[in-house]
Structure formats: C-alpha cells, structure tokens
C-alpha cells in the first residue's frame, strides 16, 4: 500500500518515515493497539515532529496481521466513525513488523535488544499475563509458565520473552527498558511488575534484583471503542482510501490514555496528542 495510491479522503503521513527511530517494541499487534497507541504516535509524528517509531510483534496468533502489514510497507488505516462522517488516517509509525512463527524468536529478541529501545509495551489481553486475578500473582504452575522456567532462553509467553530480552541487555551492558502494559485491567503496571519479577526470581535471583533496580512498570488506563473488523469495515476503508487494507481498523472518535509518568529511558510526549 503505497502513499501514492491513497485518495485525498485519508490523512496521510506527511513526516519522513526514514527519520523515525524504533524506540518502542509493542507485543500484541491487535485492533485496539492499532486504533489507540498507534494513532497517538502518528499524531505526534505528524503534528509535533516526534521521531518515536514502533517495532510491532505478535508472539502467539495473529500471523496474518503481521504478514499483511509486512506486505504493505508497514502502513495501515484507522477509520474514525461518527454520526456525521467517516474519516481515515494512514498510520506510518511502524518501522518493522515481526512474528515469532514467521521471523523467529531470535529476530524478535534481537529487536528488543537494540540499544535505542526504551519501552516495551503490551496489549495481550488479561489472560496473556498468566496471573491469578484473585491474588495478582504469576501462576507458576501454569504449563506455559512451567515450560518457560524450564527453558528460559526459548520462551513462549510475553513475560518470558521480556525477561529473556532484559537478561540479554544486562549481559551486554545495555540499559533496561520500561515495561508498559496497555491492557484494560486494574493497576496493570503492578500486575506487570509482579509477573515479571516473580518469573525472573524463578530463573535467576540476581537477574530479578537487577530488574527490580532498573526497570519501571507504569500503570495505564486506556479507552477507545474499537469494534471487531468485518467485511463491511474493510469495504468502508477501501471506499475512503481507494485501497484494500486488510490491516485496517475502525473506531469511534473518543479516545483516552492515562499514563503514570514512570519511565527509565524516556518516553514520547503523549500528552501533546490529546
């Protein structure tokens, strides 16, 4: 999907995408992330000259989403629907899209270990944390968690992948990154911290201490209504842009993002994006 193919009905990336630096790795390239965090980053790049770009990663499922993105120069469309009209924005802040099943775990971990990576964010749904909602603690007896603890260098869970990336950064003398949950659950930063530190303690006590000393886990609250993508959604996006975009999403205009300002390696100025 090249910019020259898009109609004037869509808001196009006017910034030089080559100037974007991949500073955020996002785990969970689903519809909500595309319509929420991706739009914030695109507004910042468009209106405030931000150079914060994304690496998008899916670990389990969503292979087609990543393949679609890879095939269209990492561009995708967000259509906002209101009572009066539809508008479309082509989001251009994605530098690279990866999937463990397509590109391999080592490629994903290498991306997370690039020196400039400052934030790893997540939208993996609550069940992806493998924690007990009653206690908030990591379920160390869950088969997937057990498998990661037994083979920590080849993790399958998001927590295992994050801890392995942090272990490699520590070994290489690289700074830690901030881990930011963007999933809709109470005190998501506390949940994220607890599952990461509990898992790290199960595999390497010294690593767990390094994480506690060097990593922050800000809590966030996210809000945007993003209906499931249907054939009608994609047809409407094609009508707006002139391009068939299988990675496109639709959403309502209202969006909100409340973020605890607790970052170890900087952050975008999200507050400027409204």
From TrEMBL:
Transmembrane segments: none annotated. Keywords: NAD, Oxidoreductase. The keyword NAD applies. InterPro entries: Mannitol_DH (IPR000669), Mannitol_DH/Oxidoreductase (IPR050988), Mannitol_DH_CS (IPR023027), Mannitol_DH_N (IPR013131), NAD(P)-bd_dom_sf (IPR036291). The keyword Transport does not apply. SUPFAM superfamilies: NAD(P)-binding Rossmann-fold domains. GO terms for molecular function: oxidoreductase activity, acting on the CH-OH group of donors, NAD or NADP as acceptor. One of its GO terms (biological process) is mannitol metabolic process. Residues 23-272 form the Mannitol dehydrogenase N-terminal domain. Belongs to the mannitol dehydrogenase family. UxuB subfamily. This is Mannitol dehydrogenase family protein. It comes from Escherichia coli.
């Amino acid at each position: 999907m090249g910019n020259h193919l898009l109609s004037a009905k869509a808001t196009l990336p006017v910034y030089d995408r080559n100037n974007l630096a991949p500073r955020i790795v996002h785990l969970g390239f689903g519809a909500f992330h595309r319509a929420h965090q991706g739009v914030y980053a695109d507004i910042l790049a468009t209106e405030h000259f931000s150079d914060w770009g994304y690496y998008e990663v899916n670990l389990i499922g969503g292979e087609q989403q990543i393949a679609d993105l890879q095939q269209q120069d990492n561009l995708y469309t967000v259509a906002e629907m209101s009572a009066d009209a539809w508008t479309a924005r082509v989001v251009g802040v994605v530098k690279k899209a990866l999937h463990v099943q397509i590109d391999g775990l080592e490629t994903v971990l290498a991306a997370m270990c690039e020196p400039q990576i400052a934030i790893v964010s997540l939208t993996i749904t609550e069940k992806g944390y493998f924690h007990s909602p009653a206690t908030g603690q990591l379920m160390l007896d869950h088969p997937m968690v057990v498998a990661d603890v037994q083979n920590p260098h080849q993790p399958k869970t998001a927590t295992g992948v994050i801890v392995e990336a942090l272990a490699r950064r520590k070994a290489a003398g690289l700074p830690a990154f901030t881990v930011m949950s963007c999933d809709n659950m109470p005190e998501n930063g506390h949940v994220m911290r607890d599952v990461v530190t509990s898992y790290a303690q199960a595999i390497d006590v010294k690593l767990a201490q390094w994480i506690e000393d060097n990593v922050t886990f800000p809590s966030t609250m996210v809000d945007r209504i993003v209906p499931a993508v249907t054939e009608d959604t994609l047809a409407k996006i094609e009508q707006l842009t002139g391009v068939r975009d299988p990675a496109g999403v639709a959403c309502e205009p209202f969006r909100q993002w409340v973020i605890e300002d607790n970052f170890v390696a900087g952050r975008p100025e999200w507050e400027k994006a409204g």
